[in-house]
Amino acid sequence: MRRGGQNTRQAIFEAATAEFAARGFAGAGVDRIARRAGVNKAMIYYHFKSKARLYSDIVRGMFAAIAARTSAVASSPLSPGDKINGFIEAIVAEAGARPYMPPIMMREAAEGGRHLDPAILRTILGVFGSLRTILDEGASTRVFKHVDPVLMYFTLVGPIVMYLASAPVRSAIGHLAKTGGTGIDPSPFTGHLNALRDVAALRDHLKAAARHTLDRRPTQARPGKTQRPRTIGRRRAAGRSGEQA
After folding, report:
1. Do 1-49 and 56-214 show the same overall fold?
2. Residue ranges of the domains in the chain?
3. Which pLDDT score is estimated for 167?
4. What pTM was computed for the model?
5. Is 141 within 8 Å of 134 (Cβ atoms)?
């Protein structure tokens, strides 16, 4: 049995994050959480009142950390482009530091968010609000194109959650490709098994994708508009000069 109120609470919290990530809210067992934490079940109810309260505290805490970090980025004096990079870095770093976060978020998405109370939803809305502030600033200063902020939010956050949560699947696919005679090059999968390298590669990829999506500078002619080669214009001008002569 663990001793000390704060140590006990932390042990329960850590055990519960692993249990909820592995089995979701409905499948998580208080008895298993107690055994993993090395406490009796009564201590869980003493510190957290109920399984639902314990789950809410975990989920609210992870979104509160993201909200605080993204809000600081949005209110900073950085340029809009650097703020988008900072927003991505904040999400990737917080998700990477909490292995339980991506699977819990995916389970909630699959179950319609039925375990997210209004306080948690308001915190999530704060993360979205920070991104919208950055996008609005970039558009108003003509650095960014105007984009749908909801779609941009999920363009950035969705891949982070999916990629990190799918690490066991990617590992299994890589092992199969390597040993199962599938004819598939395993390197794209087996090359992404180091957690720190995973996070860095994901962060850099999303920064490049965001830059490509938001950059206002034209990279090609507008659809329906054809640009005449400059040499043609010079030839016509020369012809007109000859006629006048």
Report:
1. no
2. 1-49, 56-214
3. 78
4. 0.78
5. no
